[in-house]
Specification:
The chain is of the alpha+beta class and 291 residues long. The protein contains four helices and 21 strands. The strands form five sheets. Strands 3-2-1-21-20-19-18-17 form an eight-stranded antiparallel beta sheet, covered by helices on one side.
Length: 291
């Protein structure tokens, strides 16, 4: 797969969104993804959201994540080794406001510190009244205005990562689907890896007690004797093995994802269908990890 240049375009909305005082929860709880990568022919590839909405995806699909949430129907286009993505979510969900000037076909994107101005069809833009040149001129596709997100990222200090769905050594949220990850957490402080491990440990111990009764910590060189010993051993060996902009990954039976900003814990299953659900240690089947 060709290397994609991170020159991303995003759709602009006229209305504005104020920046939340706290980082909102990710919308990945309850999501199921059947990716096109390494999926047998004839299998319908799609995303099913928690509310039941289904989004059909194909071999050219690239997901868009903004601050750890997947953007529904983002319609990212890969064209001439450049990623073009719908942007109102990239700008408004990251604290910016947008103004569309119909008469001149100009757009302003701004927050408290930065004002970006550009015009449809022109490669010349302004950042805080200083002119700059874009690789790709903003254009309108299907009634939606697109602008290079790499330019916006540089202007507003957004972080941008691209994953081609194959090279797991690059930053990603889900494996097996190409994705663009855009984020900006401003002054929000992420929890540490050790804090994430403690959160998972406490929740697993709670789930263990509700399922098996008394919890006795696993000891070195111990072997399995009773039901739940695999969980006891997993608790003993908890550690962070991977991370991205939003989550730490901690393997248990399936992977546990810990939200760096809310402390919420999710379970990720990587089967033909990839699924994510919020872990509930009080539920009856909390420790049932069926594929």
């Amino acid at each position: 797969m060709k290397k994609i240049l991170l020159t991303v375009l995003a759709c602009l909305c006229i209305h504005t969104t104020s920046f939340a005082e706290e980082v909102e929860s990710s919308n990945l709880d309850g999501i199921t993804i059947i990716p096109a990568i390494d999926t047998s022919e004839g299998i319908e590839t799609e995303i099913t959201y928690k509310d039941g909405y289904k989004e059909s995806i194909g071999s050219d699909f690239t997901a868009l994540f903004v601050n750890g949430s997947i953007i529904r129907n983002s319609n990212i286009i890969i064209k001439e080794n450049r990623a073009l993505a719908p942007v109102r979510y990239v700008t408004e969900n990251l604290g910016c406001e947008v103004k569309w000037i119909q008469e001149t076909r100009e757009v302003e994107v701004y927050n408290d510190e930065t004002v970006v101005k550009f015009k449809i069809g022109s490669k010349t833009a302004e950042v805080n009244n200083k002119k700059t040149q874009l690789d790709t001129a903003p254009e309108i596709y299907g009634g939606i205005t697109y602008v290079p997100v790499r330019f916006l990222a540089d202007s507003f200090n957004f972080k941008v990562d691209y994953f081609n769905g194959v090279n797991k050594n690059t930053t990603h949220i889900f494996p097996r689907i190409p994705q663009l990850i855009v984020s900006s957490y401003d002054s929000y402080e992420a929890i540490s890896k050790s804090e994430a491990v403690e959160i998972v440990k406490e929740q697993l111990i709670e789930a263990y007690r509700k399922t098996y009764g008394e919890y006795v910590p696993w000891t070195e060189n111990e072997t399995y004797k009773n039901n739940g010993d695999d969980i006891r051993e997993a608790i003993y060996n908890l550690n962070v093995t991977d991370e991205n902009d939003r989550f730490y990954t901690i393997p248990v039976v399936f992977d546990f994802w810990v939200d760096k900003y809310t402390g919420e814990v999710y379970v990720f299953y990587n089967g033909m269908a990839m699924t994510v659900y919020k872990f509930n240690p009080a539920s009856k089947g909390a420790l049932t990890f069926a594929g």
